């Protein structure tokens, strides 16, 4: 639908506003038999908020998705990541355990572990865990999440120590853009364009 198109294009705020409006216009309670479609809307809203780094808002929306579909391993895994992002480490472990019990890719454990390490400031170790999880998983939604986490790491907290000239971030996103299992992800392409720009600015600054 329209929200999915906006999300794929990296227009997270527009997508979040549109989904929230859709949810507000519908019944406050999902009609019987429509729980999965309502859960999918809440999940997409949660993903938008996550990308906007509104982790409290994302956790609230993941919670609604899980309330409607408590057996969905992907929802539980992403709730675990969200909990790790805000330092709710016990909660993250609990959601992760349930997600793996319900069939989430075992590489999810390394991914959530990496997010916990990031919260604790262990940047190099977090990078190694994320790269190992990326190698190990065949789950396309997990891969996309890991690529985005690494990109955030290289452009944010880990920039000075791990990627001072921006080359690692460019190479990572080139790999993501060429990864056919991800499908056509405009979000990755827009991040890659930004990474090229940032690296050019750094190199220009160094040349002066």
Give a description of the structure.
With 208 residues, this protein is mainly α. 76% of the residues lie in helices and 0% in strands. The model has no long low-confidence stretch (mean pLDDT 90). The longest helix has 22 residues. It is built from twelve helices and no strands.
Short structural description:
The chain contains twelve helices and no strands. With 208 residues, the protein is mainly α.
Shape designation = globular
Radius of gyration: 18 Å
Number of strands: 0
Uncertain parts: none
Distance between the termini: 48 Å
Give helix and strand order, one letter per element, not per position. HHHHHHHHHHHH
Q: Mean pLDDT score, rounded?
A: 90
Helix percentage: over 70%
Proportion of beta-strand residues: under 5%
Oligomer: single chain
Helix-strand blueprint:
Elements: H1 2-8, H2 12-25, H3 35-51, H4 55-68, H5 73-85, H6 89-101, H7 107-119, H8 123-136, H9 140-155, H10 159-162, H11 167-178, H12 186-207
Helix pairs in contact: 1-2, 2-3, 3-4, 4-5, 5-6, 5-7, 6-7, 7-8, 8-9, 9-11, 11-12
List keywords for this structure.
12 helices, 0% strand
């Amino acid at each position: 639908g329209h929200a999915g198109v906006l999300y794929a294009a990296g227009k997270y705020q527009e997508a979040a506003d549109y989904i929230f409006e859709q949810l507000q216009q519908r019944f406050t309670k999902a009609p019987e038999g429509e729980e999965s479609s309502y859960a999918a809307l809440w999940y997409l809203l949660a993903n938008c908020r996550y990308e906007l780094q509104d982790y409290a808002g994302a956790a609230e929306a993941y919670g609604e998705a899980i309330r409607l579909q408590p057996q969905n391993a992907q929802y539980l895994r992403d709730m675990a990541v969200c909990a790790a992002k805000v330092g709710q480490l016990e909660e993250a472990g609990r959601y992760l355990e349930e997600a793996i019990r319900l069939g989430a890719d075992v590489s999810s454990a390394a991914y959530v572990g990496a997010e916990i390490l990031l919260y604790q400031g262990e940047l190099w170790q977090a990078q190694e865990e994320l790269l190992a999880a990326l190698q190990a998983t065949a789950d396309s939604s997990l891969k996309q999440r890991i690529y985005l986490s690494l990109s955030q790491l290289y452009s944010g907290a880990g920039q000075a120590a791990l990627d001072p000239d921006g080359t690692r971030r460019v190479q990572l996103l080139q790999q993501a853009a060429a990864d056919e299992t991800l499908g056509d992800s405009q979000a990755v392409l827009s991040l890659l364009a930004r990474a090229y720009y940032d690296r050019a600015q750094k190199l220009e600054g160094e040349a002066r």
